[in-house]
Design a protein that fits this description.
Pfam families: ABC_tran, BCA_ABC_TP_C. InterPro entries: AAA+_ATPase, ABC_AA/LPS_Transport, ABC_transporter-like_ATP-bd, ABC_transptr_urea_ATP-bd_UrtD, BCA_ABC_TP_C, P-loop_NTPase. It is a single chain. This protein is α/β, with parallel strands linked by helices. The chain has two domains: 165 residues, P-loop containing nucleotide triphosphate hydrolases (Rossmann fold, 3-Layer(aba) Sandwich), CATH 3.40.50; 76 residues, no CATH class. 36% of the residues lie in helices and 24% in strands. A hairpin with a 2-residue loop joins strand 1 and strand 2. Helix 3 crosses helix 5 and helix 3 runs parallel beside helix 6. The radius of gyration is 18 Å and the shape is globular. The structure holds adenosine-5'-triphosphate. The site of adenosine-5'-triphosphate (ATP) has 10 residues, from helix 1.
Length: 250
């Protein structure tokens, strides 16, 4: 049982969910503190995606507690409400608007909460522009601001989408396999970028790339068969015989 602290940003305890009798999550407990960057590793089918689905309200747990910012019960909220509460999710595949410029993608993301009609007549304030400039710098796309998103590399599209999520000012950002398909240079830059982002919010990143996880240099949680197998520094986790047997040694 995990001790619940009112300052804890995300708190999962004893979370289980089954699909057709198969336990995808099995009494999972997981805690993220404000401003924390956490890496999640684990074999295929370990429950990493299902855990993200539970946090974002896509899947309901059969059992267990899921709280955000101390006392907000996420199991009672739907996906839209959870996004509104400040939980952003980056899926594996980038879904940027290819035929719009980098700047316009960020402007659209900034306007997302305003509704279609309001957006049509909305003019960016100086503050909005300053915010977009800041996001461009964070996601390393200042020099590409006027280029169509279609012309970006795969890695840059991933960064743009992270920028679009930042426009929503999430307190918790969930990022699923961001470096899959990236070049080595982009992968190294993504580790720096996520560390920058985690200076102002919490980030949970799922990845299989162990070099990238090592670059992050943060606490790692290894999931297997729907629960936590090991948790701690990368050296601690990667030397755990259970982790070697279930994941690294495969
Ligand atoms: N909606 C669903 N219906 C049936 N089974 C599901 C569903 N979602 C997940 N599962 C099963 O639950 C298990 C956990 O899957 P999950 O996608 O969470 O693992 P994962 O750790 O994200 O794996 P990967 O690294 O391959 O993405 C898998 O065996 C999967 O087939």
């Amino acid at each position: 049982m995990t001790e619940k602290n009112p300052r804890t940003l995300l708190y999962l305890d004893g979370v289980s969910v089954s699909f057709d009798g198969f336990k995808a999550l099995n009494s999972l407990s997981f805690v993220v503190e404000p401003g924390e960057l956490r890496a999640i590793i684990g074999p295929n089918g370990a429950g990493k995606t299902t855990m993200m689905d539970i946090i974002t309200g896509k899947t309901r747990p059969d059992e267990g507690e899921v709280f955000f910012k101390g006392d907000i019960d996420l199991t009672k909220r739907d996906e839209a409400e959870i996004a509104q509460l400040g939980i952003g999710r980056k899926f594996q595949k980038p879904t940027v608007f290819e035929n719009h410029t980098v700047w316009d993608n960020l402007e659209l993301a900034l306007n997302r909460g305003r509704g279609v009609f309001a957006t049509l007549f909305y003019r960016l304030t100086g503050e909005d522009k300053r915010r977009i400039e800041e996001i461009l710098a964070t996601v390393r796309l200042t020099a590409r601001r006027d280029d169509l998103a279609a012309g970006l590399s795969h890695g840059q599209k991933q960064w743009l989408e992270i920028g679009m999520l930042l426009a929503q000012e999430p307190e918790l950002l969930l990022v699923d396999e961001p470096v899959a398909g990236m070049t080595d240079a982009e992968t190294a830059e993504t580790a720096i970028l996520l560390k920058d982002i985690a200076k102002t919010r919490s980030v949970v990143v799922v990845e299989h790339d162990m070099g990238f996880i090592r670059d992050l240099g943060v606490k790692v949680t290894c999931l297997a068969e729907g629960s936590v197998l090991a948790e701690g520094s990368i050296d601690f986790v990667s030397n755990d015989p259970k982790v070697i047997e279930n994941y690294l040694g495969r």
